[in-house]
Amino acid sequence: MHTDPTSDRGIIYAPWERAFTRILSPFEEFIHRQTTSGLLLMITAVIALLVANSFLAESYLHLLHTPLGVRLGEWQLEMSLHHWVNDGLMATFFFVVGMELKREIMVGELADIRQAALPIIAAIGGMVVPALIYLGINHDGDALRGWGIPMATDIAFAVGALVLLASRVPKALITFLVALAIADDLGAVLVIALFYTQTLSYVWLGISGLMVALMFSLNFAGVRKIIPYFLIAVLLWYALLQSGVHATLAGVLGAFAVPSRPRYDPSLFSARLKELVTHFDDSHRHDSNILTNEKLHSVVQALEKGVRGVQTPQQRLEQIWHLPVAFLVIPVFALFNAGIPLQLGNLSETLTHPVMLGVAFGLLFGKFIGITGACWLALRLGIGQLPGGTRFSQIAAVSVLGGIGFTMSIFISELAFAGQEHNLLMAKTGVLAASLLAGISGYLWLWWLGRRQV
User: What global pTM score does this model have?
Assistant: First the structure.
C-alpha cells in the first residue's frame, strides 16, 4: 500500500482504505440496497418462471410441498417448505420493514407532517382506488377476498427503476417515492393484520399481547442487549402462528419494540474517542503488531465497544439484517412464489378472468388514478406541497411505478387465496403482468420527461 505524494487526488491503492473512507448517508445506503435487491429479485423471479414452465416443473412443486419440522420431546411444529418461507423466513422481511417504518416515522420523511402529508395522502389514494377497482370486477364469491392484493407497492422494484433514471429526475422525487412506498407498506401490514387472519384463538392472542408488552417493558427499562428481544420475538412468532393472526407480523411488532436510544451520548463518545486515539498512537509506536501488543489490542476493543454504544440497537440491527433480507430472504421468497405455470393454451381465459383483471387493472390503473388523483386533490386543498424541483407530471409518472406490486402483492395473494389454486394462479399472473407493464411504462414516461435535464 502506498500513495502518490505528487498526486492532487492522493490515490489510495489499498481496497480496504477505499471502503474505510467512503461515507454514505443512511438514505444513500438504503437506496443502493433497494436498487441491487430489485435487480436480484427480477433475476430470481425470471428463474422461477422458467423452472415452473420447464421439465423441472414437477420437481419444483415437490420442493414447495416438502415437509419440514422441528421437534422437542412431545412438542413438534411441521409445515411445508413453502409455508416455512412465507410464514417463517418472511418474518425477517417484516422485521426490516418495521425498522424502516419506525425510522421514517421518528426522524425520516414521515416525521415532519408538512413533508409527509403528500406521500401519505398519495399512499392512501394508491391503496383505496386499486381495492375499489378490484371490488368492482370481483364483487362476490371466493374472489372477493383478493381485494387487498393490488394495494401494495414493491419498494425494491419501484425505487430501483427510478434510481436507474437518477440523472434525469430530481433527488426529491426519489425521496417522495420512498416515503410513499414506506407508507404503503404500513397500510399493507395493517390490511394483513386486520383482514387476512384465520379463526382467532383468543388465548394465544392474549399470550401474544403479553409477549409484546414484555418487549416494550424491556425497552422502557433501558435494556439494550439484543438477545432478550430476539428470544421473546421468537415466542411471539409462535404465539401469533397459533392465534390465527399471520405470524410474520411478529417481525413488525418486534421492530417497533427495539430500543432506538444509544447507550453513549455523542459528545461523550467524541471525547472518549480522542483519548483512545491518543492511547492507540502511543501503543503503536512501541509495537505495531496487534497480535503481540496487548495494550494496542485492548484499545481497539474499547474503540469497538464505544462505536457499538454510540449507535442505537435499532441502527445496528437494521445494518445487520438489511443485507441478508434483501439478498437472500426476498430472492428465496420470489423463487418459491413466482413460479407460475403459464397457460398459453388458455390465454384468452386467463386474460378475461375476473381475478386476473381485478389485480392487473387495480395495480396498473388504480395506482395511477389513486396516487395522482390524491396528490392533485391535496395540492388543490393546500394540504401538501410538491417536492422541491419536481413537476406534477413527474408525480403522475411515479404513480405508474407504484403499480409494481411484486413482493407484498404476491404475499397477500397467498393469504387471500389459500386453498384456491386457480384464483391464486390468476392473482399471481395479474401481479406479474401489471408489475412488468407498470415498470416499463413508468420508466419510459420518466425518461421522456427528463430528456431536457440530461
Answer: 0.79
